[in-house]
Write a structure and sequence with these properties.
Helix content: 25-40%
Radius of gyration: 16 Å
Largest sheet: 3 strands, parallel
Shape: elongated
Structural class: alpha/beta
Strand order of the largest sheet: 2-1-3
Number of strands: 3
Order of helices and strands: HHEHEHHE
Length: 130
């Protein structure tokens, strides 16, 4: 459960901007988008056997990544897809905070983060967070 909270916090932090970035955006709201980047995550299989498998989370993520490339005009190498066993804490942390997005996305770029999964179902709410 705490792993999901950490991943959720990482996703939230990735969407927040520094005060300088927000001030700059307010000054030039009509600035053009230079490039587009996407981190697409789909988790349907979990290491914890008590968490039921989701049938369509990974498929939804793959379909969304394909949509971004085919209809959204994202470059294929600008879409990072992490599904099931590849969607680990370390890989998501790498993508958001260390090596992927921070080294590629610039201030005038669009960054999209998509996650298809679930928290813990009520029946197995071990941490009593739901």
């Amino acid at each position: 459960m705490s792993r999901f909270v950490v991943i959720g916090c990482l996703l939230l932090l990735a969407t927040l901007s520094s005060p300088e970035s927000i001030a700059q955006q307010a000054k030039s709201p009509d600035r053009p988008i230079e490039d587009k980047w996407a981190l697409v995550i789909g988790v349907g299989k979990f290491a914890d056997p008590k968490i039921p498998t989701l049938r369509y989370s990974a498929k939804d993520a793959k379909d969304f990544a394909d949509f971004l490339v085919q209809k959204g005009h994202f470059a294929r190498d600008h879409v990072l897809l992490l599904c099931d066993e590849k969607a680990t804490y370390e890989n998501i942390k790498m993508a958001i905070g260390d090596r992927w997005l921070p080294q590629r996305a610039l201030s005038n770029d669009l960054v999209l983060i998509y996650a298809s999964t679930h928290g813990s179902p009520k029946e197995i709410d071990v941490g009593k967070d739901n």
